[in-house]
Amino acid sequence: MVARRSPAKSPALPSDETAGAELHPRVRRWIKKAFGKLTQAQELTLPHILAGRSVLLSSPTGSGKTLAGFLGVLDHLQRAHEAGTLKPRIQCVYVSPLRALTYDIQKNLLPALKGIGLEDIVRVGTRTGDTTASERAALKRKPPHILLTTPESLAILLPQAGWAEALSEVRFVIVDELHALAENKRGAHLMLCLERLQRRVPEGLTRIGLSATAAPLPLLAELLVGQGRVCEIVEARMERRRRVEVLSPIRRDPYPPSGYTAHRVMQDIAGIVERSRNVIVFCNTRSGTESITLRLKNALPKLAAKIEAHHASLDRDVRLEVEDKLKNGELRAVVCSTSLELGVDIGSVDCVVMISTPKGISRALQRIGRSGHSIHTESHGILVATNVNDLMECIVCAEMTRAVRLDAVRPLERPLDVLAQHLVGMAMEGGYTREDVVETVRAAFAFRDLTEAELDRVLNYLEGGGRSLERQYRENFGKILWVDDKLAIPNKKVEREYLVNIGVIHTEGTISVILGKRRLGQVEESFVKRLKVGDIFVLAGRMVRLVETGVAEIRVEDATGKLPTVPSWNANKMPLASGLAHEVALLRTELARRMMGELEAGGMLAGALKGPEATGTVAPHLRGPEAGGTPVLLSDWLVERFEISQTNAEAILRHCRNQLRVSRIPTFDTFLVERFVDESPGADPELVHFFFHSLIGRSANDALSRIISHRLKEAVGGNTMVTIDDYGFLLTVKSFQDLELEAWKELFLPEHAERDMHAALEHSELVKWNFRGVAQTGLMVPRNRPGKERRLKELRWNAEILFRVLTEHEPDHPMLVQSYREATHTYLDLPRAVEFLQRTAGLEWHLIPVPVVTPFSFGIFASKIKEGMMMEDPEEAIERLWREFERKTGPER
């Protein structure tokens, strides 16, 4: 793949002096009348599309990105109509990861077609999972010129004979929100679709990728166009004004009394909503979304009717209603999880509030870009820190966001279940030899390194289920065969089952919630099992009471004004991105270096700290007047460097100084391990807590802790209680598992880490849970039968039986291999954990016995007390830990 960058030009010159001059006069006149001139994104992208070259456009939200992708298409359609060559076939396929985005695009294309004079000539059609049977039939009878669809719906069309002619002359494919597809199965799924489409289009496809905040662009370009093809890269540097602030209810006290922080957070957010026309509040979990919605309504009773929740568990009609109200200016605030991050047109939003950081800079920029949604307005984002550790992360995130320092995307590699699904689709299309299969599949970026052995195992599975199943169950699992050396399907039943099981989003245990005659949304099956009739919970920002339970739905009634139990969907928190974790570690390192000098100068260096760090050179700006020069307070450095208030800077410093009273500050070049025995009343004296301050993010710490706990069990026996965090993990062990420093070092050797990870996962529910999804995507356990959806209990039972059989008799079965791969590379971050293990030999280790949980361990210990608590609960736990800290260490000096 050859990626070429287009040089940046001066922004938005008059259209008749730039690329706009190459447009058809009708299109050019419409542009001038509607907008006056092209934006820089449009000006730089247009020449490539007009010339038939594939292009990746990266530019900020609100820069006219979508129109930049469509301008060349509109020009082509106008010229084809004029020449009399425009046939009733699809000329452009627009693919979005969001169904809602396709509806927005259709609505926005109509004025353009009318302005050009093509409204009665060019047809625009939408084909998604929401398209009705009658609408689908109409689209097939009379195909649109522009098809707006999703990856899943495109995959449904490809093997159907009735769509073959309609798709035979596609010239353009626009992939919107490419960054949202880059790291997951939907991206791999889409790119295989495009390779299959490319094979049937003689002239080839002009691929147009649209992306906002993502890097590195050459990698995204290769993902878009596949192996061996040229892609132009356009980076429009039209910098919208961006204001990023950090808001914290913490004043001078980093450990406020119980409830103070949460109460003050809501006061501050309520104040922002009162002062603004439209606000979006982002939370990192769906349960947090419901909680904040409810609290915000209670804080602003006069505006309660204009505050709504929005997340993926809500019914589509409920979500669309909220979106429409937001676009029409009828709402003051919408509280959401990730559902409004992507480019749905949401109208004019004054500012975006983020409760804690979104754990990565790309996501932060995406969220902030939802405000001031036009070229000439300012984007305004507010990061809200709910505790002092969160505050340190927020100030680093704000700094990186202002500087647009992005984390590199990590594309998914060789998802074998996705491959299996597409091989069945290829068999339905017909005409694929083995050589054709290899060429088509390897052209897709995710499968560029697919080995012959991997392909053979997947083909063998699809022919009869695999070695362990084919003798008795070939008819059940056989989905392909070879006829005259070409891929084919054995019967029509396979075709029918395939068409109702396309996609990579597997069925999970969710129950529909019905209020009156309306479906509000869904909650987890595990949550419903804990409820009894009469219990009250929150959904869509409404308090509802359970009145009746059924097989796949529950009925509720309004319970406004009652105390709720909030469901904890999506309880796993977002993992911290590597770049942000690295920068937080560097901040801690710099603070430790500067504070060592401050403490040494004041003669207050704790006994535990008298080591290599304590003898370091004192930073010049920390020296007193007697050393020459004017002293600069460390708090002033924080204020100037990170643009925060003096009180927040002092809270951070007090937090660090308290840590130094009994331990060390974890840094980038040290590995701090704290040993704590809880002697409080009721605590088990046989338990020993080891806090490992590995600053590598939640997913990597999850992987690392599993490896270490497995090795500990192998070395001395016994099980271990594990608690993970973005900045470390806690192992709670029995007294016989209490190790000295050198013994712990032995457990952190990098050799055989992957083998030990695999062993640790052997009897893990994580692999089994992953297998359920893999088995559905790989068509081993179809989630649907033609005409009906299978019950979740049946899906789980079938997956459970197959998992046991394969684990015992065929551990190299491709669906089982894929399950382990997802467990270690998607849900856990094994590569980053292994990288840390490789670094540990060069780190300076410190095993420090501490008399109390230290401030930098408060968060991890609070999670241990009760994982996934509501926002005030961790604060109560931290406040209790602080009282204990004060009792054991005495007043601050």
UniProtKB/TrEMBL annotation:
- Protein name in the entry: Helicase
Ranges for domain Helicase ATP-binding? 46-232
Annotated Gene3D superfamilies: P-loop containing nucleotide triphosphate hydrolases (3.40.50.300)
Lineage of producing organism:
Bacteria, Pseudomonadati, Verrucomicrobiota, Verrucomicrobiia, Verrucomicrobiales
Point out the coiled-coil segments of this chain.
none
Cited InterPro entries: ATP-dep_Helicase, DEAD/DEAH_box_helicase_dom, Helicase_ATP-bd, Helicase_C-like, Lhr-like, Lhr-like_DEAD/DEAH_assoc, Lhr_WH_dom, P-loop_NTPase
Species source reads Brevifollis gellanilyticus
**Which segments carry the region annotation Disordered?**
1-20
> From what superkingdom does this record's organism come?
Bacteria
Record flagged with keyword Nucleotidyltransferase:
no
User: In the record, what terms sit under GO molecular function?
Assistant: ATP binding; ATP hydrolysis activity; DNA binding; helicase activity
- Entry's Gene Ontology BP terms: DNA repair
Which family does the similarity line name?
Answer: Belongs to the Lhr helicase family. Lhr-Core subfamily.
Occurrences of domain Helicase C-terminal (ranges): 264-417
Keywords, sorted A to Z: ATP-binding, DNA damage, DNA repair, DNA-binding, Helicase, Hydrolase, Isomerase, Nucleotide-binding
